[in-house]
Amino acid sequence: MWGEDAWCYVEDKAKLIAEAARLIKPQGKIAFTDWMEGPAGLTGAEAARYLGFMKFPNVLTLGEYQSLLEANGCFVRIARDTGRFAPSVSLYLDMIEKQLTYDALKIIGFDTALAQTLTGEMRFVQSLAQVGKIIQGLMVAEKTR
Question: What is the pTM of this model?
Answer without folding.
Answer: 0.91
